[in-house]
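User: I've been trying to design a sequence by hand for this structure and keep getting stuck. Would you show me what you'd pick, starting by listing the structure so we're on the same page?

Assistant: Good idea, let's start from the same input. This is the structure you sent:
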């Protein structure tokens, strides 16, 4: 356990001294805070699975990395201890093959005491004012792993990225005999099949995503700006106890369309009668994501958009959805999607479906390829996916993004964002 010399009971009358306050512990602060957590049994399951893979791969410990960006959203740190925190470019947790796990939390004082109440492990230590590598090295040394083989999980699937350069260099400096191994796919292997508790969290995220979609539709009217739609969606999700993962919202005129896909940066564009709004709304609950994307129009849809939606978008979505089943290969999804839009005189963005670990992940199923690991290639219970289609007109001038999330079960498929698919939503 960390140094307890700054026990609140010893220093409570001298909190104005930095040395006392920064490493404070065992205070009564936040003891009445309430956080929904996964069960102790669920975290024990996760840690045991990680230790099985460590034994298989000859690793003595994992450094689980995470951060609050949209391609991490906490990543291994959230998975390993339940921390959900938006105030660190990089965060780290040590999970040894033998011994107690440790969270290295970046912020001192009151912040770290609140984090201790949120997470599901006991050993939470400060980041030594940015010297994360030194803090990690000290914990690994306590575990007797100065010369160990240490795996570092990816914090970000784009790249991927792992940890801060300064933290890595400091760790190397303090542990010159250790071997560090970058593990781009370890977290995916740990999370590609979810437990019932995790699926329940995803279903709750799906409920919040639907609330966000409905908030967009309720807020949309002439004179409102795109960023106000984003504000409405955000309020709906935070009000339900979740967090925003992806908030892509764009609008355009149905008579003169300039959009095939939601805007990743909702702009100051003012909505007008006759507009269409495209959304990609992915929300998280307890760190787990589900998404929805459904078009919204101000006024009735034009004949062009309504026909495109009903003859191209919905049949394409249903053709892909019909392939979801335990034991079904992902290649069947690709084949079902490969000609469905061209047969209707349209085209499409390449991607049609992707996996959900905590957030968007492998596998990626496109019209022309399937990317993933060998264990990804057949759908199994506990796997989760986002169907994500963007049919586009033959001339590339307009399109409609459409998405839902699903989990594979023993008996079939569970809709994580169960919202009707057959009609465009009319605002108001």
């Amino acid at each position: 356990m960390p140094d307890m010399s700054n026990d609140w009971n010893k220093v409570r009358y001298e909190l104005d001294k930095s040395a006392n306050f920064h490493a404070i512990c065992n205070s009564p602060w936040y003891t009445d805070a309430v956080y929904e957590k996964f069960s102790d049994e669920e975290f024990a399951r996760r840690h045991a699975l990680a230790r099985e893979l460590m034994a298989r791969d000859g690793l003595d410990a994992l450094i689980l990395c995470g951060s609050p960006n949209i391609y991490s959203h906490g990543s291994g740190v959230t998975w390993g201890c339940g921390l959900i925190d938006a105030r660190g470019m990089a965060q780290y947790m040590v999970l040894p093959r033998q011994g107690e796990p440790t969270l290295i939390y970046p912020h001192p004082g009151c912040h770290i005491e609140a984090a201790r109440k949120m997470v599901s492990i006991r050993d939470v230590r400060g980041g030594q004012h940015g010297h994360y590598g030194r803090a990690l090295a000290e914990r690994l040394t306590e575990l007797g792993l100065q010369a160990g083989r240490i795996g570092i999980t990816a914090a970000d699937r784009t790249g991927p990225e792992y940890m801060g350069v300064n933290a890595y260099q400091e760790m190397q400096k303090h542990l010159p005999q250790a071997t560090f191994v970058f593990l781009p796919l370890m977290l995916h292997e740990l999370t590609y099949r979810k437990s019932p508790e995790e699926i329940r969290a995803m279903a709750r995220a799906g409920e919040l995503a639907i609330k966000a979609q409905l908030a967009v539709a309720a807020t949309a009217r002439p004179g409102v700006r795109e960023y106000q739609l984003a504000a409405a969606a955000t309020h709906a999700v935070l009000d339900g106890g979740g967090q925003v993962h992806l908030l892509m919202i764009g609008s355009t005129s149905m008579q003169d369309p300039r959009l095939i896909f939601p805007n990743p940066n909702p702009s100051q564009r003012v909505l007008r009668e006759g507009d269409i709004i495209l959304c990609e709304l992915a929300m998280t609950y307890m760190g787990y994501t589900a998404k929805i994307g459904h078009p919204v129009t101000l006024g009735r849809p034009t004949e062009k958009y309504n026909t495109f939606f009903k003859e191209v978008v919905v049949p394409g979505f249903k053709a892909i959805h019909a392939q979801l089943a335990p034991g079904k290969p992902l290649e069947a999804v690709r084949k079902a999607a490969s000609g469905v839009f061209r047969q209707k005189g349209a085209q499409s963005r390449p991607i049609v479906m992707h996996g959900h670990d905590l957030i968007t992940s492998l596998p990626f199923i496109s019209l022309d390829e399937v990317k993933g690991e060998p264990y990804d290639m057949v759908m199994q219970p506990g796997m989760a996916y986002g169907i994500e289609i963007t049919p586009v007109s033959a001339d590339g001038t307009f399109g409609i993004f459409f998405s839902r999330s699903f989990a594979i079960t023993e008996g079939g498929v569970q809709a994580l964002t169960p919202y009707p698919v057959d009609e465009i939503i009319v605002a108001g």
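That's my pick for every position. To get oriented when you compare it with your attempt: Residues 196-219 form the longest helix (24 residues). The CA atoms of residues 363 and 372 lie 4 Å apart.
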